[in-house]
Amino acid sequence: DIIPQPLLDQYLSMTDPARAQTVDTEIAKHCAYSLPGVALTLGRQNWHCLKDTYETLASDVQWKVRRTLAFSIHELAVILGDQLTAADLVPIFNGFLKDLDEVRIGVLKHLYDFLKLLHADKRREYLYQLQEFVVTDNSRNWRFRYELAEQLILILELYNPNDVYDYLRHIALTLCSDKVSEVRWISFKLVVAILQKFYANNANALGLSFINELVVRFRHCSKWVGRQAFAFICQVGMFSLCFCVWLIW
Question: Which spans are transmembrane here (predicted)?
């Protein structure tokens, strides 16, 4: 009753490999691009009509098709709700995390938007995988690491201070030593955001421990770039951070 059945059948047939050879070589990509809109029109109660097509597209041999889905999986999660997302989208999301960088960037750009839709226990499982984003197929792809730092600033609110200290702190310190200055600068903002997270949640011991680690690692670094990083972190954190550093110096 929502859309004519022949029209839906025509849309679903876009994943047929024969049509890619006779109609349009990028027809599967067009199908993937339109899928969130079709899902919104049909509603989550009719997701079963699209589920098989989505899974077919998610395993397409063309990385451009998978990339298109990766960029919109967070939008589809909003449409489907938490239960369908956990059952049908999380496995595909996990596959995208292990895909080519061209596909992984799609989930990375909207990582916060997707993780916030998951239940806390399911969301916590991804703490172990965030470190994998630091490694890329091409080490010169610095924008990938820049995007990771930006997303982590948002993701901080989704986890408790202990999880931030145990998992995200290590990633932040690694990014602060990146070879590319743009990555280092956004990472300094991440470090300050972590400190603000600790003190906002009265995790003062974690905050002081982290500050002490920053002093040892950067303030007393034998290389000038490390000492410069410490100065920039203080600059980003302004007086609050500088005062805390002064207390333990």
Answer: 229-248
Instruction: Note whether residue 239 is domain-resident.
Output: no
User: Residue 95 falls within a domain, yes or no?
Assistant: yes
Q: Whole domain around residue 102: which residue ranges?
A: 1-118
Q: Which two tokens stand for residue 33?
A: 């691009």
Which long-range contacts (C-beta less than 8 Å, at least 24 apart) are formed by 194-197? 194/156, 194/164, 194/168, 194/169, 195/237, 195/241, 195/244, 197/156, 197/157, 197/161, 197/164
Amino acid at 118: L
- How far does Cα 143 stand from its chain's mean position? 13
For the chain, how many structural domains are there in total? 1
**Is 53 contained in some domain?**
yes
228: left (phi over 0), alpha (psi -120 to 50) or beta: alpha
Q: State yes or no: pLDDT of 113 exceeds 50.
A: yes
- The answer to whether residue 245 scores a pLDDT higher than 80 is no
